[in-house]
Design goal:
Layout: E1 19-23, H1 27-33, H2 38-59, E2 63-70, H3 78-101, E3 104-109, H4 117-130, E4 136-144, H5 146-162, H6 173-178, E5 190-194, E6 212-216, H7 225-236
Parallel strand pairs: 1-2, 1-5, 2-4, 3-4, 5-6
Helix pairs in contact: 1-2, 2-3, 2-7, 3-4
The chain binds 3-methylbut-3-enyl trihydrogen diphosphate (2 copies) and magnesium ion.
């Protein structure tokens, strides 16, 4: 497999974002531009996941979260939904060994039980294979919605309160964060959206509170390692104040 270029020398390797989240958008427009079918656009998008994962690993990023299928994407035509899950299954089978060899752990956020059985199984297999890996977490958001995640957290907390395990006044930002899908990744440093759309589309509503946002017009299948490095350079030029003063 071809290697990604080494990190851009303009990047300060001491200040790399620990958690990058990406809304991988623009496969359809990429297909149109190239006179291909939407399905071929999604295929190109799926291939690009490996490139960006490896670039993040080169940088020493600890967690990469990728928005692959939203709770709203069920509204697409059945054929497109079928194609997407077929591709997701194929990617899990094709890349599982590569992910494992590079000490990357696959995680999931969203509702796996709502996926077609075979796709859910392929995701579970890859998670099982890589569960002890330590270098980086790749978290794939599949059948994921930010509102659904918060409703799930609220229900779990309400359930614990009803059982008398927690008092309502003891519910804090920390306890809520503990009930997200992946509590250890409850803070995003850099949020990237490809294809120029200026919206969040129900992605990680809690986690992006203080994320730096980079929107690039580049369509997802064209977003290569250098595009990722450019986004990190933009991130490093920002002044993260968290409401305070510099
Ligand atoms: C992103 O590409 C992939 C998914 C949402 C699954 P799109 O399919 O949304 O591409 P555009 O936005 O139509 O170009
Ligand atoms: C967001 O892209 C979801 C994913 C990238 C998986 P969409 O293409 O579904 O978002 P909208 O419809 O433009 O808001
Ligand atoms: Mg889109």
């Amino acid at each position: 497999m071809e290697k990604v270029p080494p990190p851009d020398s303009r990047i300060d390797m001491e200040r790399v974002p620990a958690h990058i989240a990406i809304i991988m958008d623009g496969n359809g427009r990429w297909a149109k531009q190239h006179g291909k079918t939407r399905s071929q656009g999604h295929e190109a998008g799926a291939r690009n996941v490996r490139v960006v994962t490896e670039a993040c690993r080169e940088l020493g990023v600890r967690a990469l979260t990728l928005f692959a299928f939203s709770t709203e994407n069920w509204n697409r035509p059945q054929k497109e939904v079928d194609d997407l899950f077929r591709l997701i299954s194929r990617a899990m089978q094709q890349y599982a060994n590569r992910i494992h060899e590079t000490d990357v752990r696959l995680r999931h956020l969203g509702d796996l039980d709502g996926l077609p059985k075979s796709a859910a199984n392929d995701v579970r297999k890859c998670m099982d294979l890589t569960s002890d890996n330590k270098t980086m977490d790749v978290c794939v958001a599949l059948n994921y919605g930010g509102r659904a995640e918060l409703v799930r957290a609220a229900r779990r907390l309400a359930d614990e309160a009803a059982r008398g395990n927690i008092a309502p006044e003891d519910i804090t930002e920390d306890t809520l964060a503990q009930h997200l899908y992946l509590p250890e990744h409850s803070e995003v440093d850099l949020l990237i959206r490809t294809s120029g759309e200026l919206r969040i589309s129900n992605f990680m509503l809690w986690q992006i509170s203080y994320a730096e946002i980079v929107v690039t017009p580049t369509l997802w299948p064209d977003f290569d390692a250098q595009a990722l490095y450019d986004a990190v350079i933009a991130y490093q030029s920002r002044d993260r104040r968290f409401g305070g003063r510099p």
